[in-house]
Amino acid sequence: MPNHASPFQPADAASQPESASPDPQALARKAEVTQLLKGVMEPQLSADVVGLGMVRNLRVVDDYVYLRLYVGSHQHQLQDRVQQQLAGLPWCKKVYVQLCTISGVRTTLAVSSGKGGVGKSTTAVNLAAALTQTGASVGLLDADIYGPNVPQMLGLGQSNVQVRETPDGQRFIPLEAHRIRLMSVGLLAQSDHPLAWRGPVMHKILTQFIHEVDWGELDYLLIDLPPGTGDAQITIVQESPICGVVMVTTPQQVAVADVRRSVHMFRQVGVPVLGLVENMSYLLCGHCGEPTPIFGAGGGEQIAAELQVPLWGKVPIDPRICAQADAGMPLPLQVPDAPISQIFGQIALGLNQTFGQDAREKCQPQGMTE
Ligand SMILES: Nc1ncnc2c1ncn2[C@@H]1O[C@H](COP(=O)(O)OP(=O)(O)OP(=O)(O)O)[C@@H](O)[C@H]1O
């Protein structure tokens, strides 16, 4: 069972990069605000809003405080709590709290990797499938502009995106396969053509994708990020209420440096990295069952220990993964007792203990349910 007991590392909104040259008074006030915000607890997660990475872009300009609060659809009350907590600041004329949320979505998680081709989309799809098997409602946003393969992996390769007019403007309607709701940047492009977007266009399209999809009610939204730490990842991370990252790597030593960079990027913006999945850890011999470490060994353990991120699972190489991806059927749904299905099942249960129904029941008075 993955260790989800304490997935949140201490984060300090005051330590985020300053955009302007630091003014000592503003810095002192920002530290004061951060300290106060550490007193605002999220009851289900038993952690404060700063440690959870919910407070970002905190700025103090003269006597005014500005911040963004990244929350799930069930956590809007934290906006009032933050306002109340900061109401007593003697020097503060007004606190502006911008609520950043995705309508209907409780928990947004990112699936990320330091480099391409390590199995990030495979992890996202199989984890989404494993989560649906726990009874959760799950959406998958394929934001990998370099290789948007998720529609194919769910058997939705050539589908068209429908748009609905709403009083709040246009909304994309997600596709659905195997009880997973899906939206993908790949569905915007002609097949076989690259998504050749320059910076501002890419920023606009990704932002639209995050905010203009009509997901309905979701327990989990998984975002399959593009690999690395470039513009696209930063846009997505800044625009979405990601409350944690699942980091995917391979056992190879060369993958470790990329993971390190990626983890530091998330920590810099205050987003907690919850766990590490080491993919392609070994090949199980079809005859004798002997594991062979094709891509080296030890990378996952090394980076997990160094960065203090729990290693949630070591996923073997299994040819059925490729076959099921081509067939559009996630392995946990087709072969629930395959080792890979079991590993993702355990990770899904662990996530539910932290974010799901299990955790909600724990923090409610006896006998009450939502
Ligand atoms: N554990 C595994 N066993 C066998 N094949 C795997 C495994 N994990 C991934 N693959 C295969 O490796 C290839 C790359 O996987 P995937 O597309 O998930 O990687 P990615 O990190 O998302 O890549 P990209 O950065 O290009 O989006 C795919 O063909 C996939 O089916």
Topology:
Elements: H1 24-37, E1 41-42, E2 47-48, E3 55-61, E4 64-70, H2 77-86, E5 94-100, E6 105-113, H3 120-133, E7 138-142, H4 150-153, E8 162-166, E9 169-173, E10 175-177, E11 180-184, H5 199-211, E12 218-224, H6 231-239, E13 242-249, H7 253-269, E14 273-278, E15 283-284, E16 291-292, H8 299-307, E17 311-314, H9 319-327, H10 331-334, H11 339-355, H12 357-362
Parallel strand pairs: 4-5, 6-12, 6-13, 7-11, 7-12, 13-14, 14-17
Antiparallel strand pairs: 1-2, 3-4, 8-9, 10-11, 15-16
Helix pairs in contact: 3-11, 5-6, 7-8
This protein binds adenosine-5'-triphosphate.
Provide an overview of this structure:
Residues 30-98 form the MIP18 family-like domain. GO terms for molecular function: 4 iron, 4 sulfur cluster binding; ATP binding; ATP hydrolysis activity; ATP-dependent FeS chaperone activity; metal ion binding. Keywords: ATP-binding, Hydrolase, Iron, Iron-sulfur, Metal-binding, Nucleotide-binding. Homodimer. In the N-terminal section; belongs to the MIP18 family. Belongs to the Mrp/NBP35 ATP-binding proteins family. The chain is α/β, with parallel strands linked by helices and 370 residues long. The chain has 2 domains: 13-100, GMP Synthetase, Chain A, domain 3; 105-359, P-loop containing nucleotide triphosphate hydrolases (Rossmann fold, 3-Layer(aba) Sandwich), CATH 3.40.50. Helix content is 34%, strand content 23%. The protein is built from 12 helices and 17 strands. It has helices at 24-37, 77-86, 120-133, 150-153, 199-211, 231-239, 253-269, 299-307, 319-327, 331-334, 339-355, 357-362, and strands spanning 41-42, 47-48, 55-61, 64-70, 94-100, 105-113, 138-142, 162-166, 169-173, 175-177, 180-184, 218-224, 242-249, 273-278, 283-284, 291-292, 311-314. The strands form 5 sheets. An 8-stranded mixed β-sheet has the order 10-11-7-12-6-13-14-17, with helices on both faces. Strands 3-4-5 form a 3-stranded mixed β-sheet. The longest helix has 17 residues, at 253-269. The radius of gyration is 21 Å and the shape is globular. Mean pLDDT is 85; it is low at 1-6, 10-15 and 365-370. The structure holds adenosine-5'-triphosphate. The site of adenosine-5'-triphosphate (ATP) has 20 residues, from helix 3 and helix 9. The site of adenosine-5'-triphosphate has 20 residues, from helix 3 and helix 9.
